[in-house]
Prior knowledge:
Layout: H1 4-22, H2 27-47, H3 50-72
Amino acid sequence: MMDPLTAFGLFAVSAMLIFYALEPRGAVYSLGFAASCALGSAYGFLQGAWPFGLVEAVWSVVALRRYLGARKGTAHETQ
């Protein structure tokens, strides 16, 4: 059986993968990716893997900026 922290981590990284894959469909998925990265960051810090938590926090900020740029129509499309 999985402990609650591991289940939370599995949920967070699964959500990251799903939202990252859906990002080309719309800006709201970038927001979902940012939120799931924030959850992944919390998981990293809670389990004591601070490098993982730090990197996920940075990814959360990057995704949030991408979402805000897409909402304003200034986001650059990746190819």
